[in-house]
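anyone else get weird line breaks when pasting these?? whatever heres mine. first is seq + tokens for prot A
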Amino acid sequence: MSRKVVALKMSREELRRAEVDEKERTAEQGTAAGLTGRGLADEEPSGDQISLSEGDAGDIRLERIVFIGRTYDEYLRMFNLKPGDLKGRTVLDCPGGACSFTAKARQIGIEAVAADIAYQFDPAALEAKGRLDIGHAVQHVESLGDQYRWDEFDGPEGLRSERTKALTATVEDMEQHPERYVAAALPVLPFADRQFDMTLSAHFLFMYSDKLDYAFHEQTVAELMRVTKGEIRIFPLVDQSSRRYEDIEKLLTFAAGNGWSAEERPSDYEFQRGASSMLVLRRN
């Protein structure tokens, strides 16, 4: 029996337990994502974002991972980038989840690497879990229809299609090039100082300010600054209810004190209403 078949069989048993856990957490918190935090007012999660704060990847179980991500094209719009802007440069996607940015970027000469706590699991198991999560996420977001701009995807099935496309591309690339997908638990990353020209961070920082305190945000930004040579882009600047992160000025003061300038820029991407700008940090 192949390694992939074994992994899929294992994942089905884990996913049966996950469905029970998610139903219980939904009753307690009103979200299919439960303790992982994504999927409240945000469209859906990207990796096990809340568990990143626990700082011990070895303690995470598959059922606590929510493995969903955006496509490469969404990233370009989200961060106002053009392929030519990044060609030949080193780029970190953190946390990467099931985002297909790294897979597609590598095809056009961008030296992209993704980091996420989810990458400790077998790709086949993550694919199975991701398909389950996509179903939960689309159903949840559809129930909050007026909080989203559906012209981005032409309805729930369009969203499902894009999320599945991102998941499939990511898993295929993980299987072929596992070295591009690094298991890591923020706020600590296993990379050298200034290893990447640019870091992109989507739908994590600021989005979960009710669960991740200011100290975690500061530690995470400090770590992203440590591993980044030139520029960091973070999207969006609001939480799951589209409230602006209340400690943003404090965080910018911290960044300035460490030699980084900050600028808020509009994004060409808005699915969650109000999530339409990004923070750009540049090393002075």
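and prot B, same format (seq, then tokens)
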Amino acid sequence: MPDHSAPPRSLLLVGAVFACVVAAVVGVLVAPRPLPFTTDVLQRETSPEIYEPFGDAGDPEPVEVLLVRRYSLGGAVYTFQLGHDAENYFHEVTVPDATGAAGPPEIASVDWTPDEITVRLASGHAVVVPAEKAVGHR
């Protein structure tokens, strides 16, 4: 007479796979930010050498603004990275979703003043960042 007290191995395997899929989906849904798969620098703008490092730690240096696209499960997220070495140490600002552009955002121009950095998009929108946010060093 067959033993009916233990479930078949295939049923246990299906249950384990289902539990893993549910755990992965829940993890993605509760993640505070999109999980990045790839990151691309779309544009790079560089200021004249007018920004002194934080705390007057040297001669004036240029500041960079990078327009970055990150692909994730949630789609594409666009950010600006600002800093003296904007690929490695930066202040990050998310590009607003409602910029009016049909495609990805595009930097039209950047206005550099000692007090603020104004990034103007091709859509006509502008993002203003205090210059002090972009001039820190490690």
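btw re prot B: The mean pLDDT is 80. DSSP finds one helix and seven strands in the chain.
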